[in-house]
Specification:
Largest sheet: 3 strands, antiparallel
Number of strands: 9
Low-confidence stretches: none
Strand order of the largest sheet: 2-3-4
Strand content: 5-15%
Number of helices: 12
Structural class: mainly alpha
Order of helices and strands: HEEHHEEHHHHHHEEEHHEEH
Length: 379
Amino acid sequence: MTRDAEQALCALAGEMQRWLFDAALPLWSERGRDPDGGIYESLNLDGSPSGEARRARVQARQSYVYALAGELGWQGPWQEMARHAFDYLVGRYRASSGLFCTLVSDKGEVIDPAVKTYDQAFVLLALSQLLKTGVALFDPEEMARDVRTLLLRERHDRNGGFLEDAEPAHLSNPNMHMLEASLAWCRASNDPVWPDTVAEIAGLATRKLIRPLDSALPEYFDANWSPLPVNTIEPGHQFEWAWLLGQTRDEGLVHTIEALYAAGARGVDPVRGVALDRMDANPATVSARLWPQTERARAALMLAQWDSAQQERYLKDALDAGATIKRYLDTPLAGQWRDRMLPDGSFVNEPAPASSLYHLIGWIKELLAFAARVAKMRA
């Protein structure tokens, strides 16, 4: 089956690249771009903007997505889109402190001035890709150093990791995305602080965040980074943490990564074939968003190349997750997606969030890299 699965995944890679290049990126660059500035938060299923307030993380993610699209070879206006989103982010969200607020109206007026570490992580991620592609008209590394310095001063916790808010909030998710951004900067810069941050957050995850009893990584913690007794386990975040820890290339983490993946796999509904939004309820009552499916597929592809003994199982998971994602992408307007599947297998009729394109392109990038490796082995 392994060879057949590899062939099927290579075919899927080609199909998804065509969907990304010919449908999704053109649609969101044409209809998802506000000509007056910035990126729309979401598009209705007919392609019209929803008129919702705009999160900072969406502007940063779309800047990153289009800069990455250029790296992947898309010939559309990726430079213009990457700059358009980031210019709006700086112009509308950047506070006098140098950090970025979380929310503005669809007219660009600040609604929520709160500064979230989660949002700063995506600013850093976008800056790394802007530097890598050379598209920025300013020095991305200088801005990234400024943001990092402020975070280390204002949000760094005495026990390691980063707090989410000015009021102490010990959450795993902002740290996961700070790990992601720091990994990206390790590839873009020789600044030694970035590897130090990677090592610190990876160490925090393995020492404190992952529960020893079930190898799951929950969302909420006390001031000592001990998981709270009443907590939430999101399968998508188990897969996402697994993939990110895999990018550290630390062979000592292989068992931890496989255990995290296994924890996420316990949250896959066998009836619908979807990774659920959470694991603290009856699967028959839980919805399933699009993004956890992409994280499951990406992590499975990574592990299929690591574990020869379990390769067939991971390849099957990657194929199953890919088939599930295609169900979300089956929309009347090509390049759109459904965001939430209900317990009965139907989808919520709601706008498609722009933020999902970041998850989709991350999966497709990994899928294309997998196909390239298979082609090289068979050449």
